[in-house]
Design a protein that fits this description.
This protein is 41% helix and 12% strand. By secondary structure, the protein is an alpha+beta fold. The strands form four sheets. The chain has a six-stranded antiparallel β-sheet. A two-stranded antiparallel ribbon has the order 7-8. A two-stranded antiparallel ribbon has the order 9-10.
């Protein structure tokens, strides 16, 4: 913040001005407060623009549209005077640095931070577009990082000036590195225009630089239209989505709703990874399903990787060679990749160490379980059946002989 200058007003409308927050092509922004102590960011339009009747009429239409915006990701419009000698409007004051200042002072953000900020901004743009407003000037300096989340500012002025004012001295909308190609060409501006700017903004948050580098306005505008963005340094989790946002054709860019949903997924995944201090391999094993589903996943993973070492670790009986298991990487049966026919997997010897209740697996199907000396459960022993048959016959003959003898008597 800066002190008020001699030429600065002290009171605008019902607001008392305290400090300068900044100045831009449209006017000066002040920190003000009303009689209740509510703080606002109040922007007063430049005198030369105030004399432009076309600007005044367009500004009035867009301030009216801005009043309809609902959602917590924008700075709420508090008051405006469109008929004043110098038109002004006041929005809710948002404490916190801009995204531009935070990255400039602290360096690029993490993938989790970028995805979380991008998801909130995308959701905010959904509300802006539903109100019939296109921001047209989304860039890091127009995003404030408040304790309650990011806030979008200055959308009303950006819309009011429009793309046609790019050729007017002092009224260029936005920074050349964040303008969409259709803005540069003077074509129709749509919500996809804001998606392009958001993609460039997320790239800046990841690299502390515009995806189109540096240079004069003419050079930057040429790159936006004709060259591909440089995304070196953008995290792998975000790079494909940022690339899609920066498509030259507006029809190829994702919608703000799609962007919000995808960024929320990325933010949740990245946050989960950062909150778990274990190595990635341990996290992957602990997150796998259990039971047969896990076994199927493990087999599929091993087939994809061509790695059989984990398979041997899961079946210790296959590691027994000559009465002992050879340590992995120290020669013997574990000294390198092995190629064995599927029929040799999980060999079993009746009564041996591999005859476990779980049994082996052949061809991916569970083998028959064994009990005792290798007999299958549920089937009686043939020898026992013969003994029982002999006993039954003998008993029957004895009973028959006893009945015959009794009849003779």
């Amino acid at each position: 913040m800066m002190r008020l200058r001699r030429e600065d007003p002290r009171v605008v409308g019902s607001f008392r001005l305290h400090r300068r927050l900044g100045a831009g092509g449209m006017g000066v922004v002040y920190l003000g407060s009303d009689r209740r102590g509510q703080r606002v960011a109040l922007k007063v339009i430049r005198p030369d623009l105030a004399e432009d009747q076309e600007f005044r009429s367009r500004f009035a239409r867009e301030v009216s549209a801005a009043r309809r915006i609902r959602g917590g990701c924008t700075a709420r419009l508090v008051a405006a005077d469109l008929e004043a000698e110098r038109p002004w409007f006041a929005t809710q004051y948002v404490p916190g640095p801009s995204l531009h200042d935070k990255v400039a002072e602290e360096g690029p953000l993490t993938a989790s931070q970028i995805a979380a900020i991008g998801a909130a901004l995308s959701e905010g743009l959904v509300a802006v577009h539903e109100a019939g407003v296109v921001h047209r000037d989304l860039k890091p300096s127009n995003i404030l990082l408040s304790p309650k989340g990011p806030r979008i500012i200055d959308f009303g002025i950006a819309w009011a000036t429009g793309a046609s004012t790019l050729t007017h001295v002092g009224t260029a909308v936005g920074s050349p590195g964040f303008l969409a190609p259709e803005q540069v060409r003077g074509a129709a501006v749509t919500p996809a225009t804001d998606v392009f700017a958001l993609g460039a903004t997320l790239a800046y948050a990841a690299t502390a630089d515009s995806p189109f580098g540096h240079g004069s306005s003419e050079v930057m505008l040429y790159r936006v239209v004709h060259e591909e963005p440089h995304l070196h340094g953008v995290p792998d989790a975000l790079a494909p989505l940022v690339q899609a946002c920066l498509a030259k054709d507006p029809e190829e860019r994702p919608s703000t709703l799609q962007l919000s949903m995808r960024l929320k997924e990325i933010a949740a995944r990245e946050a989960q990874g950062l909150s778990d201090g274990r190595p990635p391999a341990q996290r992957a094993r602990s997150e796998r399903p259990v039971g047969r589903q896990a076994e199927g996943v493990d087999r599929g993973d091993r087939a994809d990787r061509g790695d059989r070492s984990d398979h041997y670790a899961d079946h210790p009986t296959e590691r027994r060679t000559g009465g002992g298991a050879a340590p992995r990487g120290q020669g013997g049966a574990q000294s390198g990749p092995r190629s064995r026919p599927s029929s040799s997997r999980n060999p079993r010897t009746p009564g041996g160490p591999s005859s476990r209740p779980t049994g082996g697996r052949t061809g991916g199907r569970p083998g028959p379980r064994t009990t005792g000396a290798g007999r299958r459960p549920g089937r009686p022993d043939p020898k026992m059946m013969r003994q029982r048959l002999i006993v039954f016959v003998v008993v029957t003959l004895i009973v028959a002989l006893g009945i015959a003898a009794a009849q003779k008597l």
